[in-house]
Design a protein that fits this description.
- With 440 residues, the protein is of the alpha/beta class.
- The protein is globular and about 75 Å long.
- The chain is 40% helix and 23% strand.
- The protein starts with a strand and ends with a helix.
- Helix 2 packs antiparallel against helix 3, helix 2 packs antiparallel against helix 5 and helix 12 crosses helix 13.
- The longest helix is centred in the first third of the chain and has 25 residues.
- The strands form 3 sheets. Strands 3-4-2-1-7-9-10-8 form an 8-stranded mixed β-sheet, with helices on both faces. Strands 12-13-11-14-16-15 form a 6-stranded antiparallel β-sheet. The chain has a two-stranded antiparallel sheet with strand order 5-6.
- The chain has 2 domains: 219 residues, Carbamate kinase; 141 residues, VC0802-like.
- Bound molecules: adenosine-5'-diphosphate, aspartic acid and magnesium ion.
- The site of aspartic acid has 12 residues, from loops.
Length: 440
Protein backbone atom coordinates (compact mmCIF):
# COMPACT_ATOMS: atom_id res chain seq x y z
CA UNK A 1 0.00 0.00 0.00
CA UNK A 2 1.31 3.48 -0.74
CA UNK A 3 0.62 7.00 0.47
CA UNK A 4 0.09 9.91 -1.90
CA UNK A 5 -0.18 13.36 -0.34
CA UNK A 6 -1.35 16.36 -2.36
CA UNK A 7 -0.72 19.89 -1.09
CA UNK A 8 -2.91 22.98 -1.34
CA UNK A 9 -1.88 24.04 -4.85
CA UNK A 10 -2.34 20.47 -6.08
CA UNK A 11 -6.03 20.59 -5.13
CA UNK A 12 -6.52 24.36 -5.38
CA UNK A 13 -8.32 24.39 -8.73
CA UNK A 14 -10.86 21.98 -10.25
CA UNK A 15 -8.44 21.09 -13.08
CA UNK A 16 -5.79 20.23 -10.49
CA UNK A 17 -8.23 17.87 -8.81
CA UNK A 18 -8.66 16.17 -12.21
CA UNK A 19 -4.85 15.78 -12.36
CA UNK A 20 -4.91 14.28 -8.88
CA UNK A 21 -7.52 11.79 -10.07
CA UNK A 22 -5.25 10.81 -12.98
CA UNK A 23 -2.28 10.34 -10.67
CA UNK A 24 -4.08 8.25 -8.09
CA UNK A 25 -5.71 5.97 -10.65
CA UNK A 26 -2.75 5.25 -12.90
CA UNK A 27 -1.60 2.12 -11.06
CA UNK A 28 -3.44 -0.62 -9.20
CA UNK A 29 -1.54 -0.45 -5.91
CA UNK A 30 -3.89 0.16 -2.97
CA UNK A 31 -3.38 3.64 -1.59
CA UNK A 32 -4.27 6.20 1.02
CA UNK A 33 -4.53 9.65 -0.52
CA UNK A 34 -3.93 12.51 1.92
CA UNK A 35 -5.28 15.91 0.90
CA UNK A 36 -4.56 19.41 2.16
CA UNK A 37 -7.09 22.22 2.13
CA UNK A 38 -7.47 24.16 -1.14
CA UNK A 39 -4.64 26.70 -1.42
CA UNK A 40 -5.47 29.89 0.46
CA UNK A 41 -8.13 28.27 2.64
CA UNK A 42 -6.09 27.70 5.80
CA UNK A 43 -4.76 31.26 5.60
CA UNK A 44 -8.36 32.48 5.27
CA UNK A 45 -9.44 30.36 8.24
CA UNK A 46 -6.54 31.78 10.30
CA UNK A 47 -7.77 35.29 9.44
CA UNK A 48 -11.33 34.35 10.39
CA UNK A 49 -10.09 33.04 13.75
CA UNK A 50 -8.00 36.19 14.28
CA UNK A 51 -10.97 38.43 13.53
CA UNK A 52 -13.16 36.47 15.95
CA UNK A 53 -10.56 36.50 18.70
CA UNK A 54 -10.20 40.26 18.41
CA UNK A 55 -13.99 40.58 18.60
CA UNK A 56 -14.35 41.89 15.03
CA UNK A 57 -17.39 39.84 14.07
CA UNK A 58 -18.18 41.93 10.99
CA UNK A 59 -14.76 41.25 9.54
CA UNK A 60 -15.07 37.54 10.39
CA UNK A 61 -18.49 37.39 8.74
CA UNK A 62 -17.18 39.11 5.61
CA UNK A 63 -14.26 36.66 5.34
CA UNK A 64 -16.60 33.69 5.86
CA UNK A 65 -18.88 34.93 3.08
CA UNK A 66 -15.95 35.43 0.69
CA UNK A 67 -14.67 31.93 1.34
CA UNK A 68 -18.16 30.47 0.98
CA UNK A 69 -18.54 32.12 -2.44
CA UNK A 70 -15.18 30.67 -3.50
CA UNK A 71 -16.35 27.15 -2.64
CA UNK A 72 -19.68 27.56 -4.41
CA UNK A 73 -17.83 28.60 -7.53
CA UNK A 74 -15.40 25.68 -7.14
CA UNK A 75 -18.25 23.16 -6.96
CA UNK A 76 -19.84 24.65 -10.05
CA UNK A 77 -16.64 24.09 -12.03
CA UNK A 78 -15.55 20.77 -10.49
CA UNK A 79 -18.79 18.85 -10.84
CA UNK A 80 -20.95 18.32 -13.90
CA UNK A 81 -24.17 16.64 -12.73
CA UNK A 82 -26.96 18.30 -10.74
CA UNK A 83 -26.94 15.38 -8.37
CA UNK A 84 -23.26 15.78 -7.46
CA UNK A 85 -23.49 19.57 -7.35
CA UNK A 86 -26.47 19.41 -4.98
CA UNK A 87 -24.72 16.93 -2.77
CA UNK A 88 -21.51 18.98 -2.58
CA UNK A 89 -23.47 22.20 -2.03
CA UNK A 90 -25.32 20.67 0.91
CA UNK A 91 -22.02 19.48 2.44
CA UNK A 92 -20.22 22.80 1.98
CA UNK A 93 -23.22 24.78 3.27
CA UNK A 94 -23.12 22.70 6.45
CA UNK A 95 -19.48 23.63 7.03
CA UNK A 96 -20.20 27.34 6.54
CA UNK A 97 -23.24 27.08 8.78
CA UNK A 98 -20.87 25.71 11.43
CA UNK A 99 -18.53 28.70 10.95
CA UNK A 100 -21.48 31.07 11.26
CA UNK A 101 -22.60 29.38 14.47
CA UNK A 102 -19.11 29.77 15.96
CA UNK A 103 -19.39 33.46 15.13
CA UNK A 104 -22.27 33.71 17.58
CA UNK A 105 -20.69 31.94 20.55
CA UNK A 106 -17.80 33.05 22.71
CA UNK A 107 -14.48 32.36 21.07
CA UNK A 108 -11.72 30.21 22.54
CA UNK A 109 -8.65 28.27 21.40
CA UNK A 110 -10.47 24.95 21.00
CA UNK A 111 -13.02 26.62 18.72
CA UNK A 112 -10.18 28.15 16.72
CA UNK A 113 -8.86 24.66 16.04
CA UNK A 114 -12.33 23.61 14.90
CA UNK A 115 -12.27 26.52 12.47
CA UNK A 116 -8.82 25.55 11.14
CA UNK A 117 -9.98 21.96 10.53
CA UNK A 118 -12.69 23.01 8.07
CA UNK A 119 -10.30 23.34 5.11
CA UNK A 120 -9.17 19.71 4.95
CA UNK A 121 -12.67 18.46 5.78
CA UNK A 122 -14.12 20.41 2.84
CA UNK A 123 -11.43 19.57 0.28
CA UNK A 124 -11.63 15.82 0.94
CA UNK A 125 -15.42 15.78 0.92
CA UNK A 126 -15.60 17.71 -2.37
CA UNK A 127 -13.00 15.40 -3.92
CA UNK A 128 -14.96 12.40 -2.70
CA UNK A 129 -18.17 13.70 -4.30
CA UNK A 130 -16.20 14.19 -7.52
CA UNK A 131 -14.81 10.61 -7.45
CA UNK A 132 -18.32 9.35 -6.81
CA UNK A 133 -19.64 11.37 -9.75
CA UNK A 134 -17.18 9.73 -12.12
CA UNK A 135 -17.76 6.27 -10.63
CA UNK A 136 -14.35 5.85 -9.00
CA UNK A 137 -14.72 3.39 -6.13
CA UNK A 138 -13.19 4.80 -2.94
CA UNK A 139 -13.66 5.31 0.80
CA UNK A 140 -13.44 8.61 2.65
CA UNK A 141 -11.59 7.87 5.90
CA UNK A 142 -12.03 10.52 8.62
CA UNK A 143 -8.54 11.41 9.91
CA UNK A 144 -10.13 12.40 13.23
CA UNK A 145 -10.87 8.69 13.80
CA UNK A 146 -7.18 7.70 13.78
CA UNK A 147 -4.75 10.67 13.76
CA UNK A 148 -3.91 11.74 17.28
CA UNK A 149 -1.38 13.60 19.41
CA UNK A 150 -0.58 12.99 23.07
CA UNK A 151 -0.59 15.41 26.00
CA UNK A 152 2.77 16.80 24.79
CA UNK A 153 1.29 17.38 21.33
CA UNK A 154 3.38 14.49 19.96
CA UNK A 155 1.91 11.93 17.58
CA UNK A 156 2.52 8.29 18.57
CA UNK A 157 2.85 6.04 15.52
CA UNK A 158 1.81 2.84 17.30
CA UNK A 159 -1.40 4.39 18.60
CA UNK A 160 -2.18 5.79 15.16
CA UNK A 161 -1.43 2.35 13.69
CA UNK A 162 -3.93 0.58 15.97
CA UNK A 163 -6.71 3.04 15.18
CA UNK A 164 -5.96 3.24 11.45
CA UNK A 165 -5.95 -0.54 11.13
CA UNK A 166 -9.45 -0.62 12.59
CA UNK A 167 -10.62 2.07 10.17
CA UNK A 168 -9.17 0.14 7.21
CA UNK A 169 -10.52 -3.22 8.34
CA UNK A 170 -14.04 -1.76 8.28
CA UNK A 171 -13.71 -1.63 4.46
CA UNK A 172 -12.46 -5.01 3.26
CA UNK A 173 -11.54 -5.25 -0.43
CA UNK A 174 -11.34 -1.47 -0.90
CA UNK A 175 -8.23 -0.10 -2.58
CA UNK A 176 -8.58 3.66 -2.63
CA UNK A 177 -8.85 5.66 0.58
CA UNK A 178 -9.05 9.45 0.82
CA UNK A 179 -8.26 11.21 4.08
CA UNK A 180 -7.45 14.63 5.53
CA UNK A 181 -3.94 15.85 6.21
CA UNK A 182 -3.14 18.29 9.04
CA UNK A 183 -6.06 17.53 11.39
CA UNK A 184 -5.98 15.26 14.41
CA UNK A 185 -7.40 14.78 17.90
CA UNK A 186 -5.48 15.83 20.98
CA UNK A 187 -5.21 14.02 24.31
CA UNK A 188 -8.48 15.62 25.43
CA UNK A 189 -10.24 14.24 22.36
CA UNK A 190 -10.68 17.72 20.88
CA UNK A 191 -10.06 18.59 17.25
CA UNK A 192 -6.48 19.79 16.87
CA UNK A 193 -3.83 20.01 14.13
CA UNK A 194 -0.21 19.19 13.33
CA UNK A 195 0.71 22.87 12.82
CA UNK A 196 0.98 24.76 9.54
CA UNK A 197 2.13 22.62 6.64
CA UNK A 198 1.19 19.57 8.72
CA UNK A 199 -0.27 17.47 5.90
CA UNK A 200 3.25 16.29 5.06
CA UNK A 201 3.55 15.13 8.66
CA UNK A 202 0.17 13.32 8.40
CA UNK A 203 1.38 11.54 5.26
CA UNK A 204 4.63 10.45 6.88
CA UNK A 205 2.85 9.28 10.04
CA UNK A 206 0.33 7.28 8.02
CA UNK A 207 3.18 5.77 5.96
CA UNK A 208 4.89 4.69 9.15
CA UNK A 209 1.65 3.43 10.68
CA UNK A 210 0.86 1.10 7.76
CA UNK A 211 4.50 0.50 6.76
CA UNK A 212 3.72 1.80 3.28
CA UNK A 213 5.83 0.92 0.23
CA UNK A 214 6.44 4.64 -0.36
CA UNK A 215 5.29 8.05 0.86
CA UNK A 216 4.78 10.35 -2.11
CA UNK A 217 4.53 14.08 -1.38
CA UNK A 218 3.00 15.74 -4.45
CA UNK A 219 3.43 19.49 -4.56
CA UNK A 220 3.95 22.45 -6.90
CA UNK A 221 7.69 22.03 -7.51
CA UNK A 222 9.85 19.19 -8.85
CA UNK A 223 11.43 18.13 -5.56
CA UNK A 224 13.71 19.61 -2.93
CA UNK A 225 15.80 22.33 -4.57
CA UNK A 226 19.35 23.20 -3.60
CA UNK A 227 18.21 26.60 -2.26
CA UNK A 228 14.98 28.48 -1.52
CA UNK A 229 13.39 29.15 -4.93
CA UNK A 230 11.30 31.95 -3.44
CA UNK A 231 14.47 33.90 -2.72
CA UNK A 232 17.10 32.72 -5.19
CA UNK A 233 16.55 33.02 -8.93
CA UNK A 234 18.41 29.95 -10.08
CA UNK A 235 17.95 26.69 -8.16
CA UNK A 236 17.94 23.05 -9.20
CA UNK A 237 16.27 19.94 -7.80
CA UNK A 238 18.32 17.55 -5.66
CA UNK A 239 17.73 14.00 -6.92
CA UNK A 240 18.67 12.07 -3.81
CA UNK A 241 18.74 12.86 -0.09
CA UNK A 242 19.26 10.73 2.97
CA UNK A 243 16.66 10.89 5.76
CA UNK A 244 19.19 12.80 7.88
CA UNK A 245 19.81 15.38 5.17
CA UNK A 246 16.09 15.81 4.42
CA UNK A 247 15.25 16.08 8.12
CA UNK A 248 17.80 18.86 8.60
CA UNK A 249 16.51 20.75 5.56
CA UNK A 250 12.90 20.41 6.69
CA UNK A 251 13.72 21.44 10.24
CA UNK A 252 15.84 24.38 9.13
CA UNK A 253 13.22 25.94 6.91
CA UNK A 254 12.84 24.23 3.50
CA UNK A 255 9.11 24.91 3.25
CA UNK A 256 8.48 22.00 0.90
CA UNK A 257 8.45 19.71 3.97
CA UNK A 258 6.89 20.23 7.40
CA UNK A 259 9.74 20.49 9.96
CA UNK A 260 8.91 17.18 11.66
CA UNK A 261 7.74 15.27 8.61
CA UNK A 262 10.79 13.06 8.10
CA UNK A 263 11.16 11.21 11.40
CA UNK A 264 8.17 8.84 11.08
CA UNK A 265 9.25 7.67 7.61
CA UNK A 266 12.86 7.50 8.75
CA UNK A 267 12.04 5.46 11.84
CA UNK A 268 10.18 2.86 9.78
CA UNK A 269 12.49 3.19 6.77
CA UNK A 270 9.77 4.21 4.31
CA UNK A 271 11.12 5.85 1.12
CA UNK A 272 9.80 9.40 0.63
CA UNK A 273 9.44 10.95 -2.81
CA UNK A 274 8.90 14.64 -3.50
CA UNK A 275 7.03 15.02 -6.79
CA UNK A 276 5.39 17.72 -8.88
CA UNK A 277 1.65 17.38 -9.59
CA UNK A 278 1.94 19.77 -12.53
CA UNK A 279 4.95 17.91 -13.98
CA UNK A 280 4.44 14.28 -12.94
CA UNK A 281 7.21 12.89 -15.13
CA UNK A 282 9.93 15.03 -13.52
CA UNK A 283 12.27 12.95 -11.38
CA UNK A 284 11.77 14.94 -8.19
CA UNK A 285 13.64 13.92 -5.05
CA UNK A 286 13.92 10.50 -3.49
CA UNK A 287 14.70 10.32 0.22
CA UNK A 288 16.23 7.06 1.48
CA UNK A 289 18.25 5.80 4.40
CA UNK A 290 21.67 6.35 2.90
CA UNK A 291 23.12 9.38 1.16
CA UNK A 292 24.24 8.78 -2.44
CA UNK A 293 27.26 11.09 -2.30
CA UNK A 294 29.34 13.31 -0.06
CA UNK A 295 29.36 17.07 0.12
CA UNK A 296 26.82 19.89 0.12
CA UNK A 297 23.30 19.17 -1.12
CA UNK A 298 21.22 22.23 -0.25
CA UNK A 299 20.82 25.40 1.77
CA UNK A 300 17.76 26.35 3.83
CA UNK A 301 16.77 29.28 5.99
CA UNK A 302 14.56 29.53 9.05
CA UNK A 303 13.22 32.95 10.10
CA UNK A 304 11.70 34.14 13.34
CA UNK A 305 14.69 33.18 15.46
CA UNK A 306 15.60 34.86 18.74
CA UNK A 307 19.17 34.77 20.08
CA UNK A 308 19.65 34.79 23.83
CA UNK A 309 23.15 35.48 25.10
CA UNK A 310 23.96 34.75 28.73
CA UNK A 311 27.18 36.36 29.91
CA UNK A 312 28.69 35.75 33.28
CA UNK A 313 31.55 37.41 35.07
CA UNK A 314 32.13 34.20 37.00
CA UNK A 315 33.46 31.00 35.43
CA UNK A 316 30.54 30.46 33.13
CA UNK A 317 31.35 26.98 32.09
CA UNK A 318 31.77 25.69 35.61
CA UNK A 319 30.05 22.34 35.80
CA UNK A 320 26.32 22.49 36.32
CA UNK A 321 26.02 25.92 34.74
CA UNK A 322 24.74 24.77 31.36
CA UNK A 323 22.32 22.44 33.13
CA UNK A 324 20.81 25.42 34.97
CA UNK A 325 20.35 27.22 31.68
CA UNK A 326 18.87 24.22 29.89
CA UNK A 327 16.48 23.53 32.77
CA UNK A 328 14.84 26.92 32.21
CA UNK A 329 14.16 26.07 28.56
CA UNK A 330 12.96 22.60 29.49
CA UNK A 331 10.57 24.01 32.06
CA UNK A 332 8.90 26.09 29.34
CA UNK A 333 8.99 23.30 26.72
CA UNK A 334 11.08 25.50 24.44
CA UNK A 335 13.63 23.74 22.32
CA UNK A 336 17.00 25.24 21.53
CA UNK A 337 18.12 25.17 17.88
CA UNK A 338 21.69 26.48 17.97
CA UNK A 339 24.18 26.86 20.77
CA UNK A 340 27.69 28.31 20.97
CA UNK A 341 29.89 28.81 23.98
CA UNK A 342 32.93 30.83 24.95
CA UNK A 343 34.70 31.07 28.28
CA UNK A 344 32.38 33.80 29.53
CA UNK A 345 29.20 33.51 27.50
CA UNK A 346 26.70 31.08 26.07
CA UNK A 347 24.45 31.97 23.14
CA UNK A 348 21.40 29.93 22.23
CA UNK A 349 18.63 30.38 19.71
CA UNK A 350 14.93 29.55 19.95
CA UNK A 351 12.09 29.82 17.47
CA UNK A 352 9.22 29.41 19.91
CA UNK A 353 8.82 32.74 21.66
CA UNK A 354 5.59 31.90 23.50
CA UNK A 355 7.38 31.91 26.88
CA UNK A 356 10.23 34.29 26.09
CA UNK A 357 9.34 36.70 28.92
CA UNK A 358 9.31 33.97 31.57
CA UNK A 359 12.47 32.38 30.18
CA UNK A 360 14.40 35.64 30.30
CA UNK A 361 13.12 36.37 33.80
CA UNK A 362 14.40 33.02 35.05
CA UNK A 363 17.72 33.31 33.23
CA UNK A 364 18.37 36.77 34.67
CA UNK A 365 19.99 35.56 37.93
CA UNK A 366 22.48 33.45 35.94
CA UNK A 367 24.22 36.36 34.23
CA UNK A 368 23.90 39.37 32.02
CA UNK A 369 21.32 38.75 29.30
CA UNK A 370 21.09 39.99 25.77
CA UNK A 371 18.01 39.11 23.70
CA UNK A 372 18.24 39.76 19.97
CA UNK A 373 15.13 39.24 17.84
CA UNK A 374 14.74 39.21 14.06
CA UNK A 375 17.33 36.54 13.36
CA UNK A 376 17.52 33.83 10.70
CA UNK A 377 19.35 30.50 10.78
CA UNK A 378 20.90 29.57 7.45
CA UNK A 379 21.87 25.92 7.24
CA UNK A 380 24.15 24.29 4.73
CA UNK A 381 23.13 20.63 4.56
CA UNK A 382 24.79 17.61 3.03
CA UNK A 383 26.71 14.44 3.78
CA UNK A 384 29.99 14.18 5.70
CA UNK A 385 30.30 17.96 5.62
CA UNK A 386 32.72 18.11 8.49
CA UNK A 387 35.15 15.93 6.57
CA UNK A 388 35.19 18.31 3.63
CA UNK A 389 38.05 20.60 4.58
CA UNK A 390 37.33 23.20 1.92
CA UNK A 391 33.63 23.65 2.73
CA UNK A 392 34.09 26.21 5.48
CA UNK A 393 36.61 28.13 3.40
CA UNK A 394 34.21 28.27 0.43
CA UNK A 395 31.29 29.14 2.69
CA UNK A 396 32.93 32.02 4.52
CA UNK A 397 34.67 33.34 1.41
CA UNK A 398 31.27 33.73 -0.24
CA UNK A 399 29.88 35.46 2.85
CA UNK A 400 32.46 38.21 3.20
CA UNK A 401 30.69 41.42 4.18
CA UNK A 402 27.78 39.66 5.89
CA UNK A 403 27.67 39.99 9.68
CA UNK A 404 27.38 36.55 11.27
CA UNK A 405 26.16 36.31 14.87
CA UNK A 406 26.69 32.60 15.53
CA UNK A 407 28.26 29.58 13.82
CA UNK A 408 27.45 25.96 14.55
CA UNK A 409 29.75 23.35 13.09
CA UNK A 410 30.41 19.76 14.04
CA UNK A 411 27.12 19.04 15.83
CA UNK A 412 26.30 16.59 13.06
CA UNK A 413 28.04 15.57 9.87
CA UNK A 414 25.09 16.89 7.92
CA UNK A 415 24.82 20.52 8.86
CA UNK A 416 26.75 23.75 9.20
CA UNK A 417 24.55 26.59 10.44
CA UNK A 418 25.05 30.31 10.81
CA UNK A 419 22.86 32.92 12.49
CA UNK A 420 22.38 36.21 10.71
CA UNK A 421 19.99 39.16 10.98
CA UNK A 422 16.90 38.39 8.86
CA UNK A 423 17.63 41.51 6.80
CA UNK A 424 20.73 39.75 5.40
CA UNK A 425 18.93 36.52 4.50
CA UNK A 426 18.41 37.12 0.79
CA UNK A 427 22.00 38.27 0.25
CA UNK A 428 23.28 35.28 2.23
CA UNK A 429 21.26 32.72 0.27
CA UNK A 430 22.32 34.28 -3.03
CA UNK A 431 25.97 34.42 -1.98
CA UNK A 432 25.93 30.75 -0.93
CA UNK A 433 24.21 29.78 -4.17
CA UNK A 434 27.11 31.26 -6.05
CA UNK A 435 29.87 30.20 -3.68
CA UNK A 436 28.77 26.61 -3.06
CA UNK A 437 26.83 25.67 -6.20
CA UNK A 438 28.15 28.07 -8.84
CA UNK A 439 24.58 29.25 -9.53
CA UNK A 440 23.54 32.90 -9.89
P1 LIG B 1 2.16 22.23 -0.53
O1 LIG B 1 1.00 23.16 -0.50
O2 LIG B 1 2.13 21.29 -1.69
O3 LIG B 1 2.41 21.57 0.78
P2 LIG B 1 4.24 24.15 0.06
O4 LIG B 1 3.94 25.54 -0.40
O5 LIG B 1 4.04 23.85 1.49
O6 LIG B 1 3.41 23.15 -0.87
O7 LIG B 1 5.74 23.74 -0.32
C1 LIG B 1 6.20 23.89 -1.65
C2 LIG B 1 6.92 25.22 -1.78
O8 LIG B 1 8.07 25.20 -0.93
C3 LIG B 1 7.48 25.48 -3.14
O9 LIG B 1 6.53 26.05 -3.99
C4 LIG B 1 8.65 26.43 -2.84
O10 LIG B 1 8.31 27.75 -3.05
C5 LIG B 1 8.90 26.26 -1.34
N1 LIG B 1 10.30 25.90 -1.05
C6 LIG B 1 11.09 26.50 -0.11
N2 LIG B 1 12.30 25.96 -0.08
C7 LIG B 1 12.31 24.97 -1.00
C8 LIG B 1 13.30 24.06 -1.47
N3 LIG B 1 14.52 24.02 -0.95
N4 LIG B 1 12.96 23.21 -2.45
C9 LIG B 1 11.73 23.22 -2.99
N5 LIG B 1 10.75 24.05 -2.60
C10 LIG B 1 11.04 24.93 -1.63
N1 LIG C 1 -3.72 23.26 5.13
C1 LIG C 1 -2.66 23.28 6.14
C2 LIG C 1 -1.81 24.52 5.97
O1 LIG C 1 -2.02 25.29 5.04
C3 LIG C 1 -1.82 22.06 6.14
C4 LIG C 1 -1.04 21.79 4.87
O2 LIG C 1 -1.40 22.32 3.81
O3 LIG C 1 -0.07 21.04 4.93
O4 LIG C 1 -0.96 24.76 6.78
MG1 LIG D 1 3.24 22.26 2.56
Amino acid sequence: MKIMKFGGTSVGKPERMYQVRDLITRDAEPKIVVLSALSGTTNALVSIGDAMSSGDKNKAKELINQLHAHYMNFIEQLLKTDNARNKATTIINEHFEFLNIILKISFNDALNKDILAQGELMSTKMFSVYLEEIGEDHVLLPALDFMSIDANDEPQVLQIRAKLQKSLEAHPGKKLFITQGYICRNAKGEVDNLKRGGSDYSASLISAAIEASVCEIWTDIDGMHNNDPRVVGSTRPVEHLSFDEAAELAYFGAKILHPASIWPAQHFNIPVKLLNTMQPEAKGTIILKEADSEGVKAVAAKDGIVMIKIKSSRMLLAYGFLRKIFEVFEKYKTSIDMITTSEVAVSVTIDNTAHLDKITMELQPLGELEVVEGQTIVSVVGNKLTQKGNLLAAMFASLSGIAINMVSYGGSMHNVSILIPTGSKNDTLKALNKGLFGLE
